[in-house]
Design goal:
β2 and β3 form a beta hairpin. It contains two helices and four strands, in the order ββββαα. Strands 1-2-3-4 form a four-stranded antiparallel sheet. By secondary structure, it is an alpha+beta fold. α1 packs antiparallel against α2.
Length: about 80
């Protein structure tokens, strides 16, 4: 079993046990999710973030063209996705 905590010293919030990931909110019960389903959910989130960044870049071109080139990379850095 492998676990990851949000901060050092905390109880793990996500634990992998074979083909299942157990996700637990602070002090709450664990939910078991198949690894393949977790991967699909994360892929969906990643795609949504890419779409958001593309939309933000388009918005910047229309709204603040002088800063558009720097905006999307700055938002990506702030979200730690690029």
């Amino acid at each position: 079993m492998v676990g990851h905590a949000a901060r050092p010293g905390e109880d793990p919030r996500a634990e992998r046990d074979g083909d299942v990931v157990r996700l637990r909110a602070a002090g709450g019960a664990a939910s078991a999710v198949p690894v393949a389903e977790v991967r699909a959910l994360l892929d969906g989130v990643e795609g949504a973030l890419r779409d958001f960044l593309a939309d933000a870049a388009g918005w910047a071109v229309r709204t603040v063209p002088a800063h558009a080139e720097a905006l999307a990379p700055a938002v990506a850095r702030a979200l730690a996705v690029a």
